[in-house]
């Protein structure tokens, strides 16, 4: 039987969603994915027993595709095992940020810049800092807040040209991994039951009933955090607009899953909210939630997307599309997506589907 042999490294917040996305995907799999982590165990996911194996270089033999959803940095899975996976012949799709900005590495959101995957056909190797020269089969999955933003920005750029972007994010705790999810649960429980919540671990300040404008991010140049700089640099790379002015404020909110973003765009030509809605609606992965309605008590109301409504969905939801009353070139958008699905696992699987559709990854 023909099909792909796949492995997933990491079974945290993203890795578990990867397993679900692969089960739902149209990828022709020869067998269930091999699931790897730091330690072996049995994982119960949606009532199914999944064997998790200890990650080692030998586990990549014969694999066609490996999804990395381990942590980043020196002890992260990609640094320790990325070279072994690539040299074993697999294509690698990495959720981490280690190599997203490396020249020659495709950073891909399929509906925005899927053609970047063609770079994998170029001869030669690519140099990943800390790993060295590796076969050109490595694709980086962008940061969660970048993915949903570029999906919404691309159609506006196509119809009216982007001149600048100002964004504030409202990011869920699952963006900081499964330990942060557990911490929000525990802190909220303890505070509601009048118990001492104890010292915070996943963030420097308590996240329950709070809003953190620095969260667990590093403060870097000009007082911006590394999360804010990621949003700037990754968006420029994906849109192919290296000089686009982008200014970001990233904020963690006590929501389990679903990132929201208030995005202000200044365009090259004025666009009415209706023209913007039409441009956004033309993209299959975008859903507009922006209907005028009247409540039963006669009050005027508008629908808009909210994180709780998008959990488990792979689309990017856009609402609150309105013009800037003081700038004819300015528009506001409210953009919401599931950070573990479109912001990570679903986008990774869509990259894999695109690689197969373009016959870059052969199905034997
Ligand atoms: N959460 C999001 O919304 C999001 C979005 C985009 C990208 N990302 C990125 O995706 C990656 C995974 O994030 P996460 O939120 O799923 O983290 P997480 O919940 O902390 O889970 C990390 C997983 O990686 C495994 N792991 C770590 N180091 C490893 C190593 N050296 N070898 C093998 N396995 C290793 C861990 O294994 P054990 O279980 O055995 O400890 C764990 O299963 C990170 O790079 C993150 O930045 C996350």
In words, what does this structure look like?
The chain folds into two domains: 6-141 and 344-357, Rossmann fold, CATH 3.40.50.720; 145-339, 2-Layer Sandwich (Dihydrodipicolinate Reductase, domain 2), CATH 3.30.360. It contains nine helices and 17 strands. It is 28% helix and 25% strand. By secondary structure, the chain is an alpha/beta fold. The strands form four sheets. The chain has a seven-stranded mixed sheet, sandwiched between helices. A six-stranded mixed sheet has the order 11-10-12-17-16-13. Strands 7-8 form a two-stranded antiparallel sheet. NADP nicotinamide-adenine-dinucleotide phosphate is lined by residues 9-15, 37-39, 55, 69-72, 75-77, 80, 95-96, 143-144, 174-175, 177-178, 339-340, 343-344.
Q: Spans with pLDDT under 50 lasting ≥5 residues?
A: none
What is the CATH fold-level name of the largest domain?
A: Dihydrodipicolinate Reductase, domain 2
Helical region count?
9
What is the CATH class of the largest domain? Alpha Beta
The largest pleated sheet is described as: 7 strands, mixed
- Characterize the overall form: globular
Structural class: alpha/beta
Bound molecules: NADP nicotinamide-adenine-dinucleotide phosphate
Task: Summarize the amount of helix as a percent range.
Answer: 25-40%
Helix and strand element order: EHEEEEHEHEEEHEHHEEHEEEHEEH
**Count of individual domains:** 2
DSSP strand count: 17
Strand content: 15-25%
Radius of gyration from the alpha-carbon trace, in angstroms: 21 Å
What is the assigned CATH homologous superfamily of the largest domain? Dihydrodipicolinate Reductase, domain 2
Second CATH tier, the architecture of the largest domain: 2-Layer Sandwich
Strand neighbour order, sheet with most strands: 3-4-2-1-5-6-9
Mean pLDDT: 97
First-to-last CA distance = 8 Å
């Amino acid at each position: 039987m023909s099909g792909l042999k796949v492995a997933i490294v990491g079974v945290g917040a993203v890795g578990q969603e990867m397993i679900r996305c692969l089960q739902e995907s149209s990828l022709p799999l020869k067998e269930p994915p091999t699931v790897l982590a730091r330690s072996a165990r049995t994982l119960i996911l949606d009532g199914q027993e999944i064997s998790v194996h200890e990650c080692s270089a030998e586990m990549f033999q014969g694999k066609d595709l490996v999804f990395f959803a381990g942590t980043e940095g020196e002890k992260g899975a990609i640094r320790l095992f990325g070279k072994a996976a690539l040299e074993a012949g697999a294509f690698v799709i990495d959720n981490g940020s280690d190599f997203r900005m490396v020249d020659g590495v495709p950073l891909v959101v399929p509906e925005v810049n899927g053609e970047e995957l063609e770079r994998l056909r170029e001869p030669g190797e690519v140099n990943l800092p800390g790993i060295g020269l590796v076969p050109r089969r490595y694709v980086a999955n962008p940061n969660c807040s970048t993915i949903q933003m570029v999906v919404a920005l691309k159609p506006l750029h196509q119809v009216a040209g982007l001149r600048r972007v100002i964004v504030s994010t409202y990011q869920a705790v699952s963006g900081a991994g499964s330990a942060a999810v557990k911490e929000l649960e525990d802190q909220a429980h303890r505070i509601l039951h009048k118990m001492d919540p104890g010292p915070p671990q996943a963030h420097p300040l308590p996240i329950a009933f709070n809003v953190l404008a620095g969260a667990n991010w590093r403060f870097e140049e000009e007082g911006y955090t590394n999360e804010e700089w990621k949003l700037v640099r990754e968006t420029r790379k994906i849109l192919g607009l290296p000089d686009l002015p982008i200014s970001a404020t990233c904020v963690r909110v006590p929501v389990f899953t679903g990132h929201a973003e208030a995005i202000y765009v200044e365009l090259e030509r004025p666009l009415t909210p209706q023209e913007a809605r039409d441009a956004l609606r033309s993209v299959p992965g975008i859903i507009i939630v922006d209907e005028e309605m009247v409540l039963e008590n006669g009050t005027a109301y508008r629908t808009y997307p909210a994180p709780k409504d998008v959990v488990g969905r792979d689309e990017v939801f856009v609402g609150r599309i309105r013009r800037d009353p003081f700038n004819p070139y300015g528009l506001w958008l409210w953009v919401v997506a599931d950070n573990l699905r479109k912001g990570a696992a679903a986008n990774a699987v869509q990259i894999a589907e695109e690689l197969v559709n373009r016959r870059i990854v052969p199905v034997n």
